[in-house]
Design goal:
With 70 residues, the chain is α+β, with helices and mostly antiparallel strands. It has a single domain, classed as Ubiquitin-like (UB roll). The protein has a two-stranded antiparallel sheet with strand order 1-2. A hairpin with a 2-residue loop joins strand 1 and strand 2. It is elongated, with a radius of gyration of 12 Å.
């Protein structure tokens, strides 16, 4: 297991609006009142952050565990 928040597979996605391949960059998402900073696939043009449901559920669970372990 790695600590990366991005699977190489995610980078095959394109932004629907811009038709550009997503690149990995820092992004923040808010979940249950917590702001989580992670490296996620983002559109370089409009800043759209790709969060698939699977990614969101899996990664947020991971991140929550990290927060709890502190
Ligand atoms: Zn875009």
């Amino acid at each position: 297991m790695t600590n990366s928040y991005t699977d190489p597979e995610d980078l095959r996605w394109k932004c629907h609006k811009c038709d550009m391949f997503l690149s990995v960059g820092p992004a923040s998402l808010t979940y249950m009142g917590k702001t989580i900073n992670a490296r996620l696939p983002v559109c370089p043009q409009c800043g759209f952050v790709l969060i698939s449901e699977e990614l969101a559920l899996g990664k947020i669970a991971e991140v929550e565990q990290l927060l709890e372990d502190k």
